[in-house]
Specification:
It is built from six helices and eight strands; from the N terminus they run E-E-H-H-H-H-E-E-E-H-H-E-E-E. It is an alpha+beta fold. It folds into three domains: about 55 residues, no CATH class; about 80 residues, no CATH class; about 60 residues, no CATH class. Strands 3-4-5-8 form a four-stranded mixed beta sheet. The longest helix has about 35 residues.
């Protein structure tokens, strides 16, 4: 039987879906087709199928998860493509383009360095996705003055890049002795105001942090700034990154070209 799968912005895609067999087989097959269509991982697929069978996830929610995962994959691919692009620009002696990204420091070229080995890449095929335990996706060193940038690459091709992922308050970083433990009481005060005003319907689910009165408190504002800075540049909920970042490169790709309005 033929069916039209319309999802993720792609229309009129004819996909074979097997309808014979049990209901579970139908569900499994539909989700497998969905994941195959979007080229998503087998492990992620297995987890989703199990949770759907257990009735802990609706099919609509699964489709939302697939959409988020697809966007994440786009961002990860852009990180690798950006690093390769920087390597190519230096190999091609395209210093004018590098200066547009990094300023005059790049006028004599750059070294593109693997953050896990601290060794410059010698071949573009060596460039792979950096592990999640590293905040810096790549290290770029200016040949002119040896100044290094530990760069976190943020892609704007898909959804807006995330500043931080969801991290539970039981995470190591918030526990006694953790890097953000001292800030937890102030974060709780901000969340208490949010929950109170959500309950009273003064706020909808999404609200600007500046609309919260307690953010005017310098201590609370300082705690938020320190929390954001930690997750952007220093580490994750489990602790310090193996390689901190000290700068951000925002990229958006049309094919494989860097945008003209970008900053480090």
């Amino acid at each position: 039987m033929m069916s039209t799968l319309i999802f993720g912005g792609k229309n009129d895609v004819d996909t074979h879906i097997r309808y014979e067999g049990s209901k579970k087989q139908k569900i499994d097959n539909y989700i497998k087709v969905l994941f195959s269509f979007h080229n998503l991982g087998r492990i992620f697929q297995t987890i989703i199928i199990r949770n759907y069978r257990n009735r802990t996830l609706s099919l609509q929610y699964i489709m939302e998860l697939v959409g988020k995962q697809k966007t994440q994959n786009i961002g990860e691919k852009d990180e690798v493509q950006c690093t390769k692009r920087l390597f190519s620009l230096d190999s091609e002696l395209n210093y004018n383009e590098l200066v547009r990204v990094f300023g005059d420091d790049a006028s004599e070229g750059i070294e593109v360095i693997n953050p896990s080995t601290h060794v410059p890449y010698s071949n573009i095929d060596q460039i792979k996705k950096t592990a999640g335990s590293y905040k810096a996706d790549v290290v770029v060193r200016m040949k002119k003055n040896q100044k290094p940038y530990n760069i976190s690459i943020k892609s704007t091709t898909g959804a807006p890049p995330a500043i931080l992922n969801h991290t539970h308050r039981n995470a190591k970083v918030f526990q006694e002795g953790g890097q953000l433990n001292e800030h937890l009481p102030n974060i709780d005060m901000l969340l208490d105001e949010y929950k109170e005003k959500r309950t009273s319907r003064a706020f909808k689910e999404d609200v600007s942090m500046t609309n919260l009165e307690c953010i005017q408190n310098p201590d609370i504002r300082n705690s938020i700034v320190n929390t954001l800075a930690y997750f952007l540049f220093q580490g994750t909920g489990s602790g310090e990154s193996k390689q901190r970042a000290d700068s951000i490169l925002a990229v958006s790709y049309t094919h494989l070209t860097l945008p003209t309005n970008r900053e480090v």
